[in-house]
Amino acid sequence: MITLTDRLSPLWNRVKARYARWEQRCVARFAHWPVGRRWVTFVLLPTLVLCCGGTVVGVPTVWVLRETVEASRGAPAPDAAASEYLMALGYNNDEGLLAILDNDRQDELLAGWRAYRKAMDTTDPPPARLDFAGLTVGPVDDDQAEVTTDVSATWWHTEGRAQFYKSEAHTWRFKTREDNGWQVVAVQAPVWCGGYVRLDACEQG
Fold first, then answer.
1. Closest of 77, 73, 89, 60 to residue 172, by C-alpha
2. More confident residue, 187 or 159
3. Which of the four pLDDT bands, split at 50, 70 and 90, describes residue 39?
4. CA distance 177 to 175
5. Which CATH architecture has domain 78-201?
């Protein structure tokens, strides 16, 4: 008599083999996860959902997994990652920001980004954007590179007549790492209040 276990065994073996190949190619970023956690997340749960819910549930599960991996891929180059970080900061738009933040430090880096943006917003008035020209990429060593660029802040005033003001440029330093795309690992940013603007131009509290 053929049991359910006998029927599922070939499917299970194929799933394990495909998972092993996929992990080797694409998920070095998950290497720090315990093996058990990786199996539960990427093999057991999708398999159970597929078996219990059929393709109606299984297809969305595969789609979510694929989109999760795609969303964690970084920029094509170190300077592109730094540029995206600064553009997002200057225009206060964090859409797509997580993709260029190091997967292991996303919470920390996102909190730092938000804190800096909050400091910018306390300025009276807040800046219109951040300006930077060339980005210098240092030597790539062990899939890591430092990016530096001089950044200035720009204000526009339209009360009465249009006025334009640009701050002194200050140097930003980014540590980036290549992991299926370049991501920002650390940011060394000049202070906003007392650096870009006078302390008395920042609202307190």
1. 89
2. 187
3. low
4. 7
5. Roll (3.10)
Report the distance separating Cα 35 and Cα 141, nearest Å.
29
The separation between CA 50 and the C-alpha centre of its own chain, rounded to angstroms, equals: 30
Mean pLDDT in residue range 148-157: 94
Residue ranges of the domains in the chain? Answer: 4-71, 78-201
Give me the DSSP letters along 109-151.
HHHHHHHHHHHHHTBSSPPSEEEE---EE---BTTEEEEEEEE
> Please, which contacts does 93-100 make with residues 24 or more away whose CB atoms are closer than 8 Å?
98/71, 98/72, 99/71, 99/72, 99/73, 99/74, 99/75, 99/181, 99/183, 100/74, 100/75, 100/182, 100/183, 100/184
Q: Can you say how many angstroms the Cα of residue 96 is from the centroid of all Cα atoms in its chain?
A: 7
β-partners of residue 156 are: 164
- Give the pTM: 0.66
